[in-house]
Design a protein that fits this description.
Blueprint: E1 4-8, H1 16-28, E2 35-39, H2 41-49, H3 59-80, E3 89-90, H4 94-100, E4 106-107, H5 109-118, H6 121-126, E5 130-137, E6 143-147, H7 153-160, E7 170-172, E8 175-179, H8 188-193, E9 198-202, H9 225-261, H10 271-278, E10 286-289, H11 304-319
Parallel strand pairs: 1-2, 1-9, 2-5, 9-10
Antiparallel strand pairs: 3-4, 5-6, 5-8, 7-8
Helix pairs in contact: 1-3, 1-11
Length: about 325
């Protein structure tokens, strides 16, 4: 049984695209995933699926468990989320509050309730799937990882999707934790470290950045602070996307090329050093799945109509994948 990893990027409401693609992979193609890695909304989707009991001996049972769990996740996205208020609330007096020292413009209480309702720490711990989600510590600036057995795993999932300024940091012990997407929007490295033999990466946004124009407002400003921040985040995410996948592809190429040339250097003094380093690297084919257009531009737009349209687009992209997959 191939050890497949599913790596899910961040993107807020754009994560509905991942639901459409996963429907094709899991329900229609019958692919099971032992390793689930995610950041931000990808952490939510990954942790939800990681609750499905994994059985390496009875693969049919394991797949059915994943299918049932996925169907519940799909229902959450398409039926339970009825708009922005199902995910977050705008704080009263937001603009003045930020100036006076408020820690965010939105209150994620609705999302907290959804996570507590649908994520069961005991199910995650016992499922035998491998879960890796990432977040950032404001104190150290480090990118950190939580897994199935991490205490307070629900809080870590929330932290992984906590974009600074928009949402307040999640405090665990003495640390303030925020969105892992600040440092790594697609945790491919975690999939390699977990021993994946095939990696499926589902991005929530296209790789290209569409040009935008900005009109003059009554204040004489071309763009206001909110538009400016949103555009800056979009550009930052795009750059991290490219860096993540390019690094993984280089790693695969290095491992593959070394296997071809190592016998030409049987007694070379550097061989042992190279093999010691590459011993930790497993070659794994990477299947990249990404949207080619923006159905949802604003990551905080949880309009049911837009979520449904983005989900359907994900199904279409998934159906267009080659019939033969690792």
């Amino acid at each position: 049984m191939t050890r497949r990893a599913l790596v899910l990027s961040g993107g807020g409401a754009k994560g509905s695209f991942q639901i459409g693609v996963m429907e094709e992979l899991i329900l229609n193609r019958g692919l099971d995933f032992e390793i689930l890695c995610g950041v931000s909304v990808g952490a939510l989707n990954a942790s939800f699926l990681a609750q499905a009991p994994f059985d390496p001996i009875h693969s049919d049972v394991s797949l059915q468990n994943l299918k049932k769990t996925f169907i519940t996740l799909r229902r959450l996205w398409l039926a339970e989320i009825e708009g922005n208020e199902s995910v977050y609330l705008k704080r009263p007096g937001t603009d003045a509050g930020i100036v006076l020292g408020a820690d965010s413009i939105y209150d994620p209480e609705p999302l907290k309730k959804l996570l507590k309702k649908y994520l069961n720490p005991k199910s995650l711990e016992k499922s035998k799937r491998v879960l890796k989600i990432q977040y950032v510590s404001l104190e150290s600036g480090e990118l950190k990882t939580a897994n199935n057995k991490s205490p307070k795993i629900v809080d870590y999932v929330l932290a992984s999707g906590t974009m600074p300024y928009y949402f307040p940091p999640v405090k665990i012990r003495k640390e303030h934790l925020v969105d892992g997407g600040i440092r790594d929007i697609t945790p491919l490295g975690q999939a390699f470290q977990a021993g994946a033999e095939a990696i499926y990466v589902i991005y929530a946004s296209p790789f290209h950045v569409e040009p935008q124009s900005f009109s003059e407002g009554w204040t004489g400003m071309k763009i206001n602070a909110f538009i400016y921040l949103g555009r800056a985040v979009e550009l930052m995410v795009n750059e991290i996307y490219r860096t993540d996948i390019e690094g993984a592809q280089r790693l695969n190429a290095l491992k593959e090329n070394w296997e071809k040339v190592k016998d030409l250097l049987p007694e070379h003094p550097s061989r042992k050093k190279i093999e010691k380093v590459l011993k930790k690297v497993r070659f794994a084919p990477i299947v990249e799945i990404k949207p080619e257009k923006y159905v949802i531009r604003d990551a905080l737009d949880f309009s049911p109509v837009n979520l449904m349209e983005n989900y359907k687009y994900g199904k279409k992209v998934g159906a267009s994948l080659p019939r033969s997959l690792p």
